[in-house]
Give the backbone structure.
Amino acid sequence: MFKLKIADIVGEHCVTSEDGQKVYDEIVPRLRSNEEVCLDFDGVSVFASPFFNFAVGQLLKNFSPDKLNELLSVDNLTSDGTSVWKRVVQNAKEYYQNPRVKEAFDTTIEKEAEEE
Amino acid sequence: MTIASLFPIPTLNDTPTDFDKLFALGNTVLADAGHVIFDFSECQFLRPNAIAFLGGIARLIESKGRTVRFDFNTAPDKVLTILRQNDFARCFGHPVFLGPGSSVPYREDRTDLNHQKDLKDDIINYLSNEWLGRGWVHVSDRLRNAIVGVVWEIYDNAFEHANSSIGLYSCGQHFPRLGILQLAVADFGIGIPDNVRHYWQNHGLTQILSSAQCLRWAFKEGASTKKQGTGRGLGLKLLKDFVNLNHGTLEIYSQDGYALICDRKERFHNNIKNSLKGTIVNITLHCDESYYCFVDELPVGPLF
């Protein structure tokens, strides 16, 4: 298993999309090779959605949830971090895995336009 | 020789009327071609939203080759004290910093996240130590980190979307008698409504959206105008949920649009008389720890 210590590449604040992309770029080739990956958040104190959007949300574009549950695990993720992670993943899953949700979301703005 | 014009700064609180006065002042100053002197004689009080905005307007004018001077000699003691405590006065030429008092420092971030390696940590430390960590709000380290993570979304939105050539301007204040803590973040870039309009025009929408419609959409879960990534944003939705859960207030003025999140209600308006080129986010939190709780934790289960 490949263990990635997030604080070593991002620092103690996991908040930006740029940092999320760094993590994504690090793990995606390994996941494609069916290698197990563990993200270790020891030493990270602050989390925000842009980081998780890019680090893990976009994985759902190319990997199924089952495959990711099989290959990807986390260590030392605080409850706040877990909460943001789950919101991001739930959001991304709905968007990528359910075409009807995507369609409904994309047409929301058209309804907005018709309201006024 | 270019003539300098005198612009009186009125008393500026944080009601919609105050914001309207603020934007009117900004538009008048920007429309003038000469050098600028701001006069405080008529000003009895300035809230952080006004201070962040005035700092940004001053830098915007300077970026056009005009000079700006704040005439601190005209400021009543109470106003000068605030401006010296939050370091605004020193940033604009007044020599003496008074020490922070109940002010949260005025700050200018005139770059973007890609060009300054430590900027992310600098802003997080500002929120954590200078804003929340002064003992005014009694929250655990865990809750403080969670609040900082949510409020970071304001900065991330501005860095990601506003493309403000002169950067971001922040200021805060603790109001002990009111038991509230405020933070205002201003940018002078592309407003949220124009960002939403451009995004949807590129996706084939032909109708013209009002600013209120654009703001309403921006608060929906999954709304994002980012070109890459997951295609679904959460930042404003997370901010809204946090403010609703903790009885705070979130206001966004962007171009001629206005969004108010308060008491679990959302209001979106177009009716600002004087519009802003850019966005101001104003967040108000209670200092009483009994108002705070965590978002319901989701059940333990698979990560995906």
